[in-house]
Amino acid sequence: MFNNRDRWRVYKKMSIMFLLAVVALTVLQKGTINMVGSFDLQRHSGMDGSEGADFGATQADNKDSYNILKGFWKMNQTHPPHKTLVTSKELKVTAGRRATTWDITSTNCSANLNLSSQEWFKGLEDNFKQFLLYRHCRYFPIIYNHPEACNGEINLLMVIKSVATQHDRREVIRKTWGKEQVIKGKRIKTLFLLGRPSHDVEKVNHQKLVEFENQIYGDILQWDFLDSFFNLTLKEIHFLKWFDIYCPGVHYIFKGDDDVFVNVDNIFEFLENSKQEKNMFVGDVLFKAKPIRKKENKYYIPQTLYNKTLYPPYAGGGGFLMDGSLARKLYWAADTLELYPIDDVFLGMCLEVLHVTPIRHEAFKTFGLVKNKTSKLNREPCFFKDMIVVHKLLPSELKLMWNLLKSDLVCAQKAAIL
Ligand SMILES: *[C@@H]1O[C@H](CO)[C@@H](O)[C@H](O)[C@H]1NC(C)=O
Ligand SMILES: *[C@@H]1O[C@H](CO)[C@@H](O)[C@H](O)[C@H]1NC(C)=O
Ligand SMILES: *[C@@H]1O[C@H](CO)[C@@H](O)[C@H](O)[C@H]1NC(C)=O
Ligand SMILES: *[C@@H]1O[C@H](CO)[C@@H](O)[C@H](O)[C@H]1NC(C)=O
Ligand SMILES: *[C@@H]1O[C@H](CO)[C@@H](O)[C@H](O)[C@H]1NC(C)=O
C-alpha cells in the first residue's frame, strides 16, 4: 500500500518530469526560432506592396477605411450569380472507390526524368524543376493519423496548415480560437496539418517535438512529404483524401493558416444566416487574378507552367469556409487535375471543375487587413469583433486580441474611421 509520503513522492516525480518536458520543449523551440525564416506560411505577403496590383481587380477593395455596422457581415456578401450546375457525371463523386483507411503505405516515387531532356524544362528555375520532377507523386504515407478525430457529432472541423517549427503558433491557437468547445450545442474540433520538417539543421529534433506534441494533444496529422512552399498543394489533397475517409459526418470545414485570427462565434452566426446549403465555399475570393510573371515574386509562375492570362476565382488560403460535402467533391475534382504549385489557386481550379463559384465575403481578410501595415485598424479590437478571419498576426498579438475580445468590450455602432 502507498502511504501519503510515497504518494507525495510519486506526485513530485511526475511534476518534475512534466516540468522538464515543458522546459525541453521551450528550449528546443527558442533555440530554433531564429532559423525559421526560410520557410513561412505567410502566403500572400508579396501582395501587400506593388505586386498586389498584379493580382487582379478585387484587391482594390481593401481600402484603409471601414464602416463597422453591427452584424454587417451577415448579409453583406458579394457574390456573382451563383452557378451550382454540377453535372450528373460530377455528382457520382468518388462512388465506389472510397478507402476506409489511409491506404498509402510506401513512398516509391522516382523523379520523372523524361522532363530533363526537354528544352523548356532546362530553362526553368530550380524550384520549378523540383516541383515538376515529382509532380506525379500524389499521395504519401501518413506519419501521425487520428482516425478517431471526427468521431461523434462534429459540426465544424478546423484544419490549420502548420509546420514543425511553428510550435508556438499552434500553442496559442489551442488556447484561443482553436480550443475544443461546444457553441450552442455545436462541437468544434481543431487539427493541424503537417508535412516533414524541411530544415536540415535540427530536423530530427523538430520531428521529436512534433511527436511529443502529438502525444500530449492528439491533434496533429502529419504526412511523409517535405514541408515546402510548393508542397502546400500536396497538403491540400492529402487533407481532402483524409477527410473523405475519416469524416463522413462533419458539416463544415474551416481551413486556414496558423497565423490567423478566427472569430468562431461569427462563423456560426454566418452559417445560421446563410441560406446556401450546398456547395458553399466562402472566403477572401479573388476574381480575375493574374498569374504573377515577375521572377522575384514568391508567387511567380512561368508561362510554361500556366499560360492563361487569368486564374479561376479562388479564395486566399489564409482562411476559408466550406461545407463537408463540397470537400468530398473537391477530393474527386483534385484527382482529375495535375498539381499546381500554389495551393489556393489549385483549389480554385478544382472548384472550376465542379462549376462552383466561391463566394467573396468582407469578413474574411486573408490578404491582410489593410494594406497600410501601420494603420491603427490592425490593432482595433472592435474591428476584429466583426470579422471572421484576419491574417496575419504574431502569437502574442493573437493572444492579446483574444483577451480583448473576451473582455467586456463595448463597441460603438461605428468605430472611428482612420
Ligand atoms: C520502387 O520502384 C522501382 C521502379 O519503379 C522498383 O525497381 C523498386 O523495386 C521499388 N522499390 C520498392 C521498395 O518498392
Ligand atoms: C516517361 O516516358 C515513358 C515513355 O514515354 C512513359 O512510359 C513514362 O510513363 C514516363 N514517366 C513519367 C513519370 O511520366
Ligand atoms: C515535395 O515532397 C516530396 C516528398 O518529400 C519531395 O520529394 C519533393 O521534392 C517536394 N517538392 C518540393 C517542390 O519541395
Ligand atoms: C498553353 O498550354 C497548353 C497546355 O500546356 C497548350 O496545349 C497550349 O497550346 C498553350 N497555349 C499557348 C497559347 O501557348
Ligand atoms: C499609414 O497609416 C498611418 C497611420 O494611419 C499614416 O500616418 C501613414 O501616412 C499611412 N501610410 C500610407 C502609405 O498611407
Structural account:
With about 425 residues, this protein is an alpha/beta fold. About 30% of the residues lie in helices and about 15% in strands. It has 3 domains: about 5-40; about 45-105 and about 145-405, Spore Coat Polysaccharide Biosynthesis Protein SpsA, Chain A; about 110-140, no CATH class. The chain has helices at about 5-30, 90, 120, 125-135, 165-175, 205-215, 230-245, 265-275, 325-335, 345-355, 380-385, 395-405, and strands spanning about 75-80, 140-145, 155-160, 180-185, 185-195, 220-225, 250-255, 260, 280-285, 315-325, 360, 365, 390. It has 12 helices and 13 strands. The strands form 2 sheets. Strands 1, 2, 3, 4, 5, 6, 7, 9, 10 and 11 form a 10-stranded mixed sheet that branches. One 2-acetamido-2-deoxy-beta-D-glucopyranose binds near residues 106, 108 and 110. It is an enzyme of class 2 (transferase).
